[in-house]
Structures are given as structure tokens and as C-alpha cells.
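The instructor's notes for this session suggest beginning with a concrete chain rather than abstract definitions. Hand out the sequence below and ask the class to guess, before any prediction is shown, which regions might be ordered.
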Amino acid sequence: MSALIASPRVSLAEALEPATRRAALAGFMGSLLEWYDFYLFGTAAALVFGPLFFPNSSPAAGTLAAFATFAIGFIARPIGAVLFGHVGDRIGRKYALLATALLMGAGTFLIGLLPTYESIGVWAPVLLVVLRLAQGLGIGGEWGGAALIALEHAPRGWRGLIGTFPQMGTPFGLLLSTGAFALSVSMLSNETFMAWGWRVPFLLSIVFMVPALYIRSRVEESPVFRKAAEALVEGRKRQAIPVVDLFRNHWRNLVLATGARLADAATFNVINVFGIAYASRQLGVSRELMLSGFVIAAAVEVVVLPLIGVLSDRIGRKPVYLAGVAFSGLFIFAYFPLLQQGSAVAVWWAITLALAVGTSLMYGIQSSFFSELFSTSVRYTGISVAYQLSALLAGAPTPLIAAALVSWSDGAWWPVAVYLLAVCTVSFVCVCLAAETSQGELPVDVHRELDTIKV
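After discussion, reveal the predicted structure:
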């Protein structure tokens, strides 16, 4: 039987003690770096990578090739999840977080220095793929560690709120990366932007990497992990390999968490990565208008995410998550018609509702919801693998699938909406089958061999 950590509910002021605040900031900064890097690549894949790195292809084929490069990073993400999950579950959350921040930041910075096809020929796309794979490895272990370093410092009753701090790195990363691209596009001529302007947002990643590394070097290891590690030493138990223990003893929750996140992964990539390309090329909506819409949506998300965390602490994780899945699956049928109107108000409303309502209701509580499904000894590996498997299954192929569906239907958007509704249906069923976790304690259960641990 799973052991539980006993902790009475405390006030918000007590919950936000200095150690918790430092952990939340460490999770936020790494998440900000992760998603700044991630969104930069997705935006660049939609706008510039095709002509710069695949110039011998037609515009449509170049876009598909750029999206394929975008998808390649997802292949490395499950590997990174297992690798850094192992480090995080065996050695400590802190060490894994330092490594992932360094790998992600360096990979993104080097993309900003990468020569294009015109300079070095076929080596340009090859090196782009290599750096994308490095990004994928780092991202694979980043989210799980960022979520845990904050969540495992949080007391019961406030995990939903404190768990939103690393989640807020997503809209901040989107806000900063999209803002950097929008500023570059608006201030530079198209020729100048394509010549060197696109590099500036990538080079700016070092501005976020340095403080992320500094803050993470000073954060304390989570008390939950320390207690579990001490119990193993005192009991002289040999710790199992986390990924083996995960698939052997926690496979059901792994499947449910992976399935639950499919809707979020697919929705975001339809709205953002594919949506930018479709709106600019099929609907004639300007790149500047789309990018400014994502900036507005990200700003709204910053305010909305903590409220969603508090709501999940009060009414439960499942009702909140199910609302996000249902909204995303249905609103997509209004999203593209709103974009077709072409007005700034319609486009901005479409993007803001899709992100700040649909995906935020899911993404805002994933760190708390998914973490509460796994025991301490496999928690880093469990949430990382679930997150990255869902990204591989529904995130990576979605822009390619959507582009292929549009090509098959002669430019129609409805097949993409049907595809997304199907994905959301799968997630809805998985959430219904998962346990409600908001009022319970974080499960410890160190390989089912130890007595209850109380901290």
C-alpha cells in the first residue's frame, strides 16, 4: 500500500515560506527558458526555416520540411525524460534541473549562430537537426523537474496554486519569444529580417539561461525527496531503476496521464505552430496580426493560470481539466471561422480564448495533477515520460498532420478540427478514469518496501 506524507493544511502566508518561494522561482525560470526556446523554434519553423534551410523546395514542401525538423525534437524528448528522470529520482531534482537548463539554453543560442543553406549547403539543415535534438533532450527532462521542485515544497491545499508557477513560464516564454519575433518583423524590412533579424531572438536566450542556472544552483533539494532518500539509506534498500519501476508498478497512471495531455499538446500545436502558417498562407492574415494575438493571449494567461490553480485546489483537478478538454475540442470549430474574418478583434479573440481558456484549464494544473499520481521514487520519471510521450504522440505530428489534411481538402480547415476533436475525446476518457488527487497527500511509497514517512 502506498505510504503517504502527512501534512496539515496551512495558510497561504505559511505556504509561501522562503524555501518554497525560491523553489517556485527556480521552476518558473527554467520553464521560462524551456518555452522561450520551444516557441522560438516553432515560430521560426513556420516563418523562416523553410526558405533559409530548405531553399530548393517549393514553398509548401519547404514548410513541411521545416515542420519535420520541428517534429524531430520530439523524438529526443522521451529519451531526455528517461535520462534526466533517472538523475532526478536517483540523485536529486536540483542536479537534473541544472543540466537541462544548460543544454536547452546552449542549443538555442547556437541556432542563432547557425549558417544557412546558402553558406554551407546541406550541412545547414543537418546541424539544425542536431541542435534541435539537443534541445529535445533538455526539454525532455526540464518540465518534470521544474514542476517537482516547486510542487514538492508546497503543502497540501496549495499544490494547485504553487504548481502554476512553473506553468507560468509557458505564457511568459510565449510572450517573450513571440514578442521578440513580432518586434523583429515590425522593425526590420523582410530582406533584413530574413538575412539576420531572425537570429536575434535565438541569441537572446542566453539572457534567460544565466539567471536560471544561478537561481537553480542556490535552491534547496525538495524535502520530500530528501526524506525518501534518507529512508532508503536507513532501511538499506536498493533503489530500483526508476523507469523500470514506473512501467512495472505505475503503468496505469502513466497511460492515463499521457492520454490526458494529448488534448493539450495537439490543441496548442494546431493553434500556434500550424495556425500561424495556415492563417498567413491560406487565409491571408498577416504574420504581425497573428503574432500580436499570441502576445495578448500570453499576457492574459499570466493572470489566469494562478486562478485556475486555486480553483483546482477548491473543487478538484478533474472538473477543471475536463472543462479545458471539452472547450478545446469544441471551440476549434469556431477558431478557424474567426480567423477567416481577418479583423484584429476576431483574430485576437480566437487566439486568446483558445489559449487562455482552453489550454490553460489543462496546462495550468498538469504539474499538480500528474505529480500527485506518482510516488516520490518515480515521480520525476513518471511525469516527464507522460509529458514527453504525449508530446511525441500528439505534439510532434500535429503540424504535419494538419498541413497534410489541409492539402488533401484543398485548403479546408474542417478536417483539422475533426482531428483535434478526436484527440480531445481520448483525453476526456483518460481524465474520467484517473483518480481525483487534489485533497490527498503526495504518495511516497518507495518501492512498496518502507513504512509511512511523515514530514
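Then share the key points. The chain has 23 helices and no strands. The chain has a mean pLDDT of 83.
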